[in-house]
Amino acid sequence: MSNADAAVREAALLVHLDNYDPAAREDPYEFQDLVRSAGAHIVHFVTVHRPQFTARFLIGAGKVDEIAQLVQLYEADLVIFNHALTPSQERNLEQALGCRVIDRIGLILDIFAQRAYTHEGKLQVELAQLEHISTRLVRSRTDLSRQQGGIGLRGPGETQLETDRRLLRIRVRQIKARLEKVRNQRDLARRARKRAEMPAVSLVGYTNAGKSTLFNRLTESGVYAADQLFATLDPTVRRVELADVGAITLADTVGFIRHLPHKLVESFRATLEESAAADLLLHVIDAGAEERQEQIEQVLEVLHEIDADQVTLLEVYNKIDTLAQIEPHIQRNAEGKPERVWLSAQSGQGIELLIQAMQELLVDDLVVTTLVLPQQLSRLRAKLFDLQAIVQEHYDEQGQSVVDIRIARVELNRLLSHEGLAAETFLQEYTKSH
Question: Could you tell me if residue 235 is inside a domain?
């Protein structure tokens, strides 16, 4: 980073806690990536080894004094803790360190605020921030003195604190009402897709696993993808044509992260419900990540929280181009169904295997037969070609088209319905007898 870059960024001193509790421990490297994603300049990194937390500062008073000296030495603008702080701990630390202090939740909320571009995304982030801020509103001494009354202060009215809280409650209600409308609109859209019998596929995974790169590869779209945490925040849905399946919707969703703040899960519930309502989840995994298993467990935990853990799931081990001697391949379960696909979204290696696995999991009833189509069904024949359902074709002595088809039954039923034909009767009448 150049000096010019550092000059326009906030100087951040990072505090990472190693408390020997695997369930509460955070990844120090991920912490630094989060801070960089927020746009801060890291001036120093402090690791605190402490088996138990304190109520006043979270860490010991001696360590607080040491950090205060480092803040002066490095001229830090703020101190960021890789752990959740209570409102009182945050206030106590700010007084002791003489600068702003934010915790891991505040850091993630800030990144989300930067990444939200759509109206819905901005509302969701604002709701999470307001609910986080509401716990930080406390009475100052002046507020308390005003509560006791005095000349010009008696009678009706309210303290600044109460005003802030009231305005905050009003804004939260307004945002929730707007998001409820968004949720209803999404429900209507999902019901419309269900009526059209269009399968829904949703990409999920740990942040920076490569979901957006894979989404772009599958849809040939230009969704923003970058090597940074939470590059994608606002959901994107595209229509994709799959052989044997027909049209599907593919959704790219926000990345998950270790100990994703509950406020964010709640605020983004309307967006995350795209995953819960899907017919198939593609769980994108960074195959080369050192803490791959922990990341997988974090994603599964969030899926359980949003009631999406019963949806059929296909693991997609991405970034195999960063690993030695790993070729694209499909791993199957005892029943022969695809469980994992190893590929590289960046290079495109193994994408055809992913499409094959998706086809197998989405098509539970495939029609494979030979049809004899007279001239009056030429429009139907043309549509079968458009759907790439015709494997091969020849003509009989009467000039009728004899086609070998391979198509999902749901897609064939939809096509025949549009042509005013009953599927069962049609197949009985036009299937070639052997």
Answer: yes
Residue 223 scores a pLDDT above 60 = no
pLDDT score recorded for residue 220: 82
Name residue 46's beta-bridge partners. 15
Say whether both 281 and 382 belong to one domain.
no
- What is the reported pTM? 0.64
212 is in an annotated binding site: yes
* 321 among annotated binding-site residues: yes
Is residue 109 within 8 A of residue 124, CB to CB? The reply is no
Q: Specify whether 333 is located in the same domain as 270.
A: yes
Annotated binding residue 210: yes
- Is 263 part of any known ligand binding site? no
Same domain, 354 and 390: no
- Annotated binding-site residue? 426: no
**Gap between the Cα atoms of 286 and 124, Å rounded:** 27
Q: Which domain holds residue 314?
A: 200-363
Q: Residue written as tokens 């049609």?
A: 426
Asked whether residue 86 is marked as a ligand-binding residue, the answer is no
Give burial (CB, 10 Å; 0-12/13-18/19+) of 2.
exposed
